[in-house]
Write a structure and sequence with these properties.
Structural class: mainly beta
Number of strands: 15
Strand content: 35-45%
Radius of gyration: 22 Å
Distance between the termini: 42 Å
CATH architecture of the largest domain: 3-Layer(aba) Sandwich
Number of domains: 2
Order of helices and strands: EEHEEEEEEEEEEEEEH
Bound molecules: calcium ion
CATH class of the largest domain: Alpha Beta
Strand order of the largest sheet: 5-4-14-13-12-11
């Protein structure tokens, strides 16, 4: 068995052993207070199986959209987007995954006020765009493309003051949205499976910053002096 560690840290490859019981062990000891058979984990439980797990470091992508909004792509380019509306922040070109950001007016420019995450049929939205400007109260909503319940493998964590959210998906991709009084800070984390398979404002993730500002047809957007209008408009 091999596992992949995706925490953005560099650690040596490690091997560990996990010991597991078998169904025969789990059913071997009847619970004294009920008719059900349950495992005695602390007394008399002897695991039989031993599994070697190899943990390897894997590349993780990180892209941020902050302030009004300043974007840092997966490969560390810094396109600015001062337009109002909805944008593709990061989409995978090899699987059904997408993150969209929503900008509202923010003084003379714009700021993030919401983020929507989709993986396969599951869609989670962190939204403060309906709040009174300067008094942001983000809300969480979800929907599914097939009308079925949200996958149990999708989680949304919220901090104690209700301002910071983490949306985690089964692929290992996760998005952190932190609400400030007038804007939202968005950080997206891409799993290794999306390396060389990204598009959107977070750029083409391949380790080369020179090709980040890709348009939908694969051509590169011209670089401008103070903001990247053509590139931003491309990813509405
Ligand atoms: Ca690149």
């Amino acid at each position: 068995m091999r596992a992949i560690k995706d925490q953005g840290k560099t650690n040596p490859t490690k091997t560990m052993t996990i010991t597991l019981g078998t169904p025969a062990n789990l059913l071997a000891f009847p619970h004294s207070q009920s008719s059900h058979f349950v495992p005695h984990l602390f007394n008399g439980y002897t695991p039989e199986a031993r599994i070697q797990v190899r943990v390897e470091d894997a590349r993780e992508g990180r892209c941020t959209s902050t302030g009004d909004p300043h974007i840092t792509t997966f490969d560390n380019r810094f396109p600015n987007n001062y337009a109002h509306g909805d944008f593709v922040l990061y989409a995978s070109t090899s699987r059904n995954f997408e993150v969209q950001s929503r900008h509202w007016h923010c003084n003379s420019v714009t700021c993030n006020c919401g983020v929507a995450v989709r993986e396969d049929n599951d869609i989670i939205i962190i939204d403060m765009c309906q709040s009174e400007y300067g008094f942001a109260h983000p809300t969480v909503s979800y929907k599914t493309a097939d009308g079925k319940p949200l996958s149990r493998a999708v989680t949304v964590d919220r901090d104690t003051n209700g301002k910071k959210y983490k949306v985690s998906t089964p692929s290992g991709a996760y998005v952190v949205a932190e609400a400030r009084s007038t804007h939202m800070q968005i950080t997206v984390h891409a799993p290794r499976v999306d390396f060389e398979h990204t598009e959107g404002l977070c750029g083409f993730w391949d380790g080369d910053p020179s090709n980040d500002l890709r348009m939908r047809d694969g051509s590169l957007s011209p670089r401008h002096t103070w903001w990247d209008k053509e590139f931003s408009e491309e990813w509405r």
